[in-house]
Design brief:
Blueprint: H1 14-21, H2 25-39, E1 44-54, H3 83-95, E2 100-105, H4 115-126, E3 131-135, H5 141-150, E4 154-156, H6 163-169, H7 175-187, E5 191-193, E6 196-198, H8 204-215, E7 223-228, H9 245-258, E8 263-266, H10 275-283, E9 288-290, H11 303-313, E10 316-317, E11 330-332, E12 344-346
Parallel strand pairs: 1-2, 1-9, 1-10, 2-3, 3-4, 4-5, 6-7, 7-8, 8-9
Antiparallel strand pairs: 11-12
Helix pairs in contact: 1-8, 2-9, 3-4, 4-5, 5-7, 8-9, 9-10
The structure holds S-adenosylmethionine, 6-(5-methyl-2-OXO-imidazolidin-4-yl)-hexanoic acid (DTB) and iron/sulfur cluster.
Residues 50, 66, 102, 104, 135, 156, 158, 195, 225, 227, 230, 267-268, 295-298 line the site of 6-(5-methyl-2-OXO-imidazolidin-4-yl)-hexanoic acid.
Length: 347
């Protein structure tokens, strides 16, 4: 099938998207994988590393979040990290094969007094030759422009769920606040990273609603993180019933079909997924993930565990500058076999 066969649409109807969610699983996977292959190499994954530059004591009340000051999750709060430390963490992430460094802060929005330090982080990480991403909460137009001018490539700001379910999860800001920040990010010329969380007790209609919001934006987010709720003790969602893994994989597949050119990120929650579920997520069209043993405050599979999975699946990481002394990575055992993952060996 040629790339023309799947136009990039921004006019999806609720009915169409629900119908995708309700397809027989094998048909849905086939459609997602077919579209994925029109736009991407199906065995290449982009890897980003997260760094919590300001941890805990967030004034917001997001029911899933271990960093909200309102819930006792036992998290030690920390001040904004020194620029030098951020840069040394970014160097380590680059050496491990990560190409993007995502800096997250537990803020409702950045304070004017924090901006200078944050902008220095962007410049310092950029100077290492890595892509930069930040997630700092709501941004004004001026803040978005300042970050863009400093060289920030991506801004992560998740819609998290449908407009209808949002009020069940967060009461300290509105859906419109989120959309306004996303508009400021776009207008300032940065790439948008926006997705959501599944497994928070939402209905399939809410997963439809979230993806409709993202897919009907005038320009799709370049990166769409799909997080599985990480249940953290002390948060209101700690005892949330487990979502069936197939529903998570379906959400990835529908995101892939609706936004064919976007990177769909198999995001938080991998620590509780086995290799089979993660490989189904790749088959559904996920082609980006967080790399490194920690997300912001919760565990993530370590690099060596992910390398083992990549080896089993013949997955390569995108544009890696990994230091071969530090990590295992793939080399073709012979040039003629280069494109056949079965013939890749670990060094
Ligand atoms: N404070 C900023 C904000 O909320 O926009 C940036 C940091 S916040 C931790 C970034 C995102 O992490 C949230 O929007 C949410 O999607 C995700 N997240 C936080 N806690 C999570 C959890 N327990 N499970 C899954 N995703 C989570
Ligand atoms: C995103 O969608 N997921 C990441 C990143 N963007 C910032 C954060 C996941 C956080 C999971 C809970 C934690 O580690 O604190
Ligand atoms: Fe604060 Fe972000 Fe956590 Fe919400 S998700 S409590 S805004 S750190």
């Amino acid at each position: 099938m040629s790339a023309e066969a799947s136009p990039i649409r921004h006019d999806w109807s609720r009915k169409e998207v629900l119908a995708l969610f309700q397809m027989p699983f094998n048909d849905l996977m086939f459609q997602a994988q077919t579209i994925h292959r029109q736009f991407f190499d199906a065995s290449t994954v982009q890897v980003s590393t997260l760094c919590s530059i300001k941890t805990g004591a967030c004034p917001e009340d997001c029911a899933y979040c271990p960093q909200s000051i309102r819930y006792d999750t036992g998290l030690e709060k920390e001040k904004l990290m020194e620029v030098e430390r951020v840069i040394s963490e970014a160097k380590a992430a680059k050496a491990a094969g990560s190409t993007r460094f995502c800096m997250g802060a537990a803020w409702r929005s950045p304070k004017p007094r924090d901006m200078e330090q944050v902008l220095a982080m962007v410049k310092g990480v950029k100077a290492l030759g890595m892509e930069t991403c930040m997630t700092l909460g709501m941004l004004t137009e001026d803040q978005a422009h300042a970050l863009s001018d400093a060289g920030l490539d991506y801004y992560n700001h998740n819609l998290d769920t449908s407009p209808e379910y949002y009020g069940e999860i967060i009461t300290t800001r509105t859906y419109q606040h989120r959309l306004d920040t996303l508009a400021n990010v776009r207008e300032a010329g940065m790439k948008v990273c926006s997705g959501g969380i599944v497994g928070m007790g939402e209905s399939v209609d809410d997963r439809v609603g979230l993806l409709l919001q993202l897919a009907n934006m005038p320009q799709h987010p370049e990166s769409v993180p799909i997080n599985m709720l990480v249940k953290v003790e002390g948060t209101p969602l700690a005892e949330q019933e487990e979502l069936d893994g197939f529903e998570f994989v379906r959400t990835i597949a529908v995101a892939r079909i609706l936004m064919p050119r976007s990177y769909v990120r198999l995001s938080a929650g991998r620590e509780s997924m086995d290799e089979y579920m993660q490989s189904l997520a790749f088959l559904a069209g996920a082609n980006s993930m967080f790399y490194g043993e920690k997300l912001l405050t919760t565990p993530n599979p370590g690099v060596s565990k992910d390398q083992q999975l990549f080896n089993k699946l013949g997955i390569k990481t995108e544009n890696s500058h990994a230091d071969s002394n530090l990590v295992e990575h793939w080399i073709p055992s012979s040039h003629s076999l280069k494109d056949n993952p079965l013939y890749y060996n670990a060094v």
